Target: Asparaginase
Amino acid sequence: MVESVHTGHLVALDASGRDALRLGEPEQQIYPRSCLKPLQAVGMLRAGVSLTVEQLALACASHNGEDRHREVALGILESVGLDATALANTPDLPLDHAAAWAWQRGGRGPEPITQNCSGKHAAMVATCVAAGWPVAGYLDPEHPLQRHLLAVIAELTQVEQAHVAVDGCGAPQPSTTVRGLAGAFARIAAAEEGTAEHRVAEAIRAHPFLVAGTGREDTEAMRAVPGLILKGGADGVHAGALPDGRALAFKVSDGAARPRPVVLGAVLRELGVEPVEDWAWERVPVLGHGEPVGRVSPGFGAGALAFGGVA
Model:
């Protein structure tokens, strides 16, 4: 019995930029959410910020708020003579349950430094210092930092931004398309050495733990697939690319996170990536009394199930 069906929009590009797979309407405008972080990191490097490889990886992260994530975020701020009070992102507890429990046992509550976007915000603050822009108001869409980042995002996606909203962390959130997002990741992953794009890709590859954290599919998938850069976002968005320019992006229409690992595994296979070891991260069980009684399956590719004649 099929209990639920998730629909969405997806595009996978081959190394020449042609469609290897297209589902739904990849030209539809979406909010890419945290999938924009690697693009924003490119913009910050171009604006002159100085970051270590670890700090650059964390600037691209939606991290768990584990000890190392917080340490690196604080290190970015300390490098420009500031502390966590400079952060303007939304206070939250760590995403990781163990980290959140330990944080609360220490008498702490929701704070900007433990929110999953604190690496990006710390890097934004450091960029303002490096460029000589005011730190105060750095989230305003009219702030020079945000005007610069919006322009870089438009350049990398090659898509006109029809809308600019506010992301969950308080930063401006421009719309783009699934195709534009895949193209941007392809440009970053295949960029020439010495470019800001190449630096971002190499940082993500070097530190997949900092990009997400313990038990997260982005971290586990990047550890399993050599050269892959990958970034998930809220409301069912995911994007990634390989060093030869093969790329993918998709948006789950109902905003659910549940199907993302399943879709990611299936589309990587469509791009010719075959597991050399078990991809445990792509399996999403349906539980009954704490035990697997079903599974989430892709609607395309070798693992697809037929749903009443619709695959």
Observations:
- The longest strand covers residues 8-13.
